[in-house]
Amino acid sequence: MLPQHLKQIRVLMLNEKENLERTLFRLEQGFELQFRLGPSLQGRRVLVHTNYPLEGQPFRRDVFRVLAWNYPSGREDDSDKYCSLDLKIAGSYQYYFGYIGIERSGGGYIVVDPVLRVGADDHVLPLDCVTIQTYLSKCLGHLDDWCDRLRVAKETGYNMIHFTPLQTLGESRSCYSLADQLTFNPEFSAEGQSYGWEDVGALVESFRTEWNMICITDVVYNHTASNSVWIQEHPECGYNLMNSPHLRPAWVLDRALWHLTTRTAEGRYKERGLPADITEDKHLQAIRSVILEDIFPQIKLWEFFQVDVDKAVLQFEALLQKGAQADHSKTEGVKGLKIIPDPEYKRYGNTVDMDSALETFVPRSSSTPHVDECCDLLRQRLTQLNEEQFRVVQQHHEQAINCILGNVVYERLAAHGPKLGPVTKKDPLVTRYFTFPYGDMTLEEEMLLLDKPEKSCHFLAHNGWVMGDDPLRNFAEPGSNVYLRRELVCWGDSVKLRYGKSPEDCPYLWEHMKKYTEITATHFHGVRLDNCHSTPLHVAEYMLDAARAVRPNLYVIAELFTGSELIDNVFVNRLGISSLVREAMSAGDSHEEGRLVYRYGGEPVGAFVQPSLRPLMPTIAHAMFLDVTHDNECPIQLRSALDSLPSSAIVSMACCASGSTRGYDELVPHQISVVKEERFYPKWNPSASPSSLGEVGPHTGIVAGKLALNKLHQELAAQGFIQVYVDQVDADIVAITRHCPSTHQSVVTVCRTAFHDPKTHHYDPNVPPMFIPGKIEEVVLEARTVERKAESYVKDGKFINGLPQYTVEIKEHISLEESTVVKQAAVMSKDRSEFVQEITFEKLTPGSVIAFRVSLDPKAQQVVGVLRYYLSQFSPKYRRGSTADDSPPEVLQKPLSQLMSKLSLADMNVLLFRCEAEEQEDGGGCYGIPGWESLKYAGLQGLVSVMANIRPNNDLGHPVCANLRQGDWLLDFTSNRLVSKEGPLAQVGEWLAAMFKYLKHIPRYLIPCYFDAILVSTYTTALDATYKLMSSFVQNGSSFVRHLALGSVQMCSVGRLPSLPPLSDKLEGVPYRLSPISGEKEQCCVSLAAGLPHFSAGIFRCWGRDTFIALRGLMLLTGRHLEARNIILAFAGTLRHGLIPNLLGEGRSARFNCRDAVWWWLQCIQDYANHVPQGHEILRCPVSRMYPTDDSQPLPPGQVEQPLYDVIQEVLQRHLEGISFRERDAGPKIDMNMRDEGFNVETKVDPKTGFVSGGNRFNCGTWMDKMGESDKARNKGMPATPRDGSAVEIVGLSKSAVRWVVELHSKGLFPYDGVKIQNNGTESFVSYAQWNQQIQASFETHFWVSGDPHDPNEKHPELVHKRGIYKDSHGASSPWCDYQLRPNFTIAMVVAPELFTVEHAWTALEMAENKLLGPLGMKTLDPDDMVYCGVYDNSLDNDNYNLAKGFNYHQGPEWLWPVGYFLRAKLYFAKKKEDESFYSRSVTLVKNVLSRHYTHLERSPWKGLPELTNENGQYCPFSCETQAWSLATVLEVLYDL
User: 160-177, pLDDT tens digit by residue?
Assistant: First the structure.
């Protein structure tokens, strides 16, 4: 089974310092959200906090709790652990995370959608099903009439009503200016009745249960009507001149402009060119001159920002005369005059900070002339500062005049404006910014009120909006000059409310508005946040928390005008907004309108099936897409009446909530004003005539068309038509497809818009034909807006009426033949799997719509059903739309897991991996995508790696998807390469071929999605089967452990030619096959590739050193014991000169030119014996010797055999005797670069120290084996790192081996306790115990570089440049090489930790961490070394000796495999430290380092870890993309953890 549950789980990866407050994450109730640690946080003790409440607890925004971590593998593994939330409550929730020392390292919000329920059975109304209609409540009349008026919404197919506020309105009669937030508007009660909130609540509930209709209403938090009684009783609830004295200058200007209005209205400025009736541009110039010449000089606003110079100088003079000095604790000795702004904003109220004055102007003495001199300097500076303030205020003046004139132009001159006519007190020159609840008086008298608190507290600032302002800033607070600069587009009927920071700042207001909110939430299912972008966020948060306490599934909508999606997200996140109102009227043409449909929801047609457990992706806010909103201009005025229907159809086809405003469907040709409209909406009457004024019926306007569209919208959302395709057919025609991914039904709606009136604009009568893939089942609807004979429109005085001369011709659910819009439909076959219908139109006139229901052709529909049937064995999500196969092929009758269970791990290598070179050996290759690139593997992983990037983004335009749509090549390649194999692999290939046979018969656009479904199902089933064949460490391990363990499958394979020499036929468990070349029986043991792609096939596949560094991690820890044994014994058979080969070359072409491989081999035998149950039995296994003597020719298997313990004894014997030989075929035939001396191989045991030593400066016998290749740089034939003498890791490995044989001998498992050696004709015996002791005694003395300049053990103090390290070698021919800091000593620490003292080891490890540890690998040389270079470029050939032809391969580039040894050493010695904190800190380091490997592994298309990186973890193009020992040593660290 696939690890996919029906439960939807989303994973949010936490990364250090990642603040996602402006990123929107939307989730549904019933989802689980998991928080996991990204690489930057792994290893830290991270705490995740959230204010999502515990079950049964109330939500409190400021109460956070810590989430507990879950450990799926049972171990504390940071790569897999997660904490989670089961989301059951709607709303906005915050999370943040941190660790010791940093409480908040990052955080963000999640928004959980509400669940809306309707009907007597409480069934769910999905948000995408919503079709909303807005009503201006004051136009509904008495409550008794509401049912008849609102029935229009029901009969037109809407399922949600939005009421503007139902409270008592203010004197302006604006729907949004409320006089009393707590009372139900008494206008809704007829004489003798008194309806209240309970009555309207009962009506709303009846709509929900009987009409299946949800009701929402507005909440207005930003302002209240100027005539609200409570604001007069509680003026502290607004911005008045007492609590907001910074508004005093603006108030003065406002009063002066009011007096300008009265004088202009009285004609007092007529002689200056300013009449009461402003009709020309020259009148604007007159206004400007009057304000500049009369008003500004009179009110002197700059005085509010200036200092009284005389007063300040007198005060300063008095201080100087007293001998006063500056308080240095305040000035800190810094000169510079500071002005203190007056918090009360009185004229000349600003004062001087006298300490700054005393610090800045210091008299030379206390004499009067010197004091006077200072006072003069202060006076000059203050005068200068006052002039600066004057200039600032002049800039405010200039902006204020511009804004005033802009306002006048709009209100009185502009064609699109209200044309208010002459200036009067009722229609003033500019809207007043402040209330003035007193009678007429002169400006001078009004100015006296400024200093009367009991009066000035009632001068309240009006609300409004500011063009282009920051919506997160409150424009009425101090620091804003909006009122002074007249930048506010003011609502003169409403007072802006002043909440402060919390309820304590204005208790009455918060309590009043909370009650208002609770009343609303009690009786309505949702709210629209009016003027949301100007509502203080903390206020809206508080109110919505109160609302959700009353109604947890509160539906919250808002219209935001922030101009930025990121700022929109701040509002959506903080407030938990369910849907943002979007408007089709914002589109300038049909192309843009279609783009909005695509933008606001749905996935592309043919999208991939996403796993139920997947990353949480950022999203845009859920849209409520309206054809027009109630406070915007009427589309008929801006477009044409004929466009109403097609634009509605475009909106209805969007995969989100949709809706409209009452009046749109009735073709009301003007905006229904929220302020001025007082007429009533007509009532519903099914038999109403089209020209009826007080009634609406099916024939009114586009009502019939809208009903059909609303039904279609709801059906598409309810039935899972979640895929969307928008086709701009021509300039006016938009075709929108909604597709259901489980049934593969589509609805294609073709809309011909009419943005221009056809009477004045030419529309082409020739409509291009359309090509619709599949079989057209029916015409769901066809509708045309047509003119009919009727009298011209006259605006009725009592009812809101629409254009009588238009109606809709509509037919629903008809066959193609019955259509009058379609001329003909011809069926064409694109290929064997796709039928296309060509549609030619006859009457697709501007203003028409036609919707087709399309299914796949019957054959394809059946095939898709069968495919889904077979896929449902992997996930229940395929059950919908599935149909059983009547005659299933035999191979499909068994579950795939049953077929997979028969595969071996070697088979899995073929199924999943195999790079280009491996496939070429079998005569194949990896699949290449024309015009793109080849896949990394021929096996499934090659595709899975690519699809992992394509799938989450639904990147259907990717070349791989294009290739799948264009032909069957990739399908055939995937199955055929397996069918050509034998046995169980062929069966899996046949299973795929049978599935692909169905796949080839479905429409091409669906092939990528179903191919991916088959691929994912096969791949995950294969992984499950793979892990079952591995050790419990892997089976119970984390994802990281499993990813690394897959490296074993990646690297271990059986090629066309056997890579290993034959084993003894006496051994059990050796696999055999018939040779694909000779047809004869041969052994087919897996071999271990060194790395891909460079070391994967042929002679360069198997290397002794690489094999045995990787064998423990990739084979022993993963449970591949038998295969590991075979590899150990195969290499044992090739022993020659006491060494095992470096390059194996199948044994026959082996090179015995390395000193370390034999010691790695011995280490692996020891690991095998210790790790595998009864592992010591390997010592008695027969080894078939290919070279029983140094000079023998390769012998056939079985001719000379001996037990493994004898081969081990030979190795130790030969080293103690000393090994010296010249490589066979020395010269260019085996190495084109090596100098003659380099072919001489020597290695021995130093009798003084017991150290294995050898090599010379012309060869390189350890893993750092780069041989110079450049003639130009003259490094050809010179090793970059000869490491001759005793290399530290070889000393460690040999110590480990000798210690082990001593232990074996003591247990009777190894027959030898030492060796006899000949020396100058005399025989002596060297016991292994003695050798073991000798190395132990010599190591610290010869390898530790102390910090002591007088250390008697230090033979070359002049070469020491790093202290507190272990040497890289001892006795090198170039002594300075011994002292280079490299990572090799950590290997010795792991295999022979007894050689090291704990304190020295720790010091050296700290040095390595600071100097060598990179993001993924270890620097191979100290960056302070003069020859360090961290960038490896093997193609560079210049004259630089140290770099040419990649000479610096091991002189700085960061190799991965030593990191494993460094981390294991760190863990080992941390445990030895007495202080336990060392170990916990080391675990943190290890997890943090490994997290980067995990990230690389997950993202790598090779699913591996590279051989090396360039400095600081940069990608190296010359590295193997995945290397056996890199994977193995990291896996060993996890095993140690």
Answer: 999 999 999 999 999 999
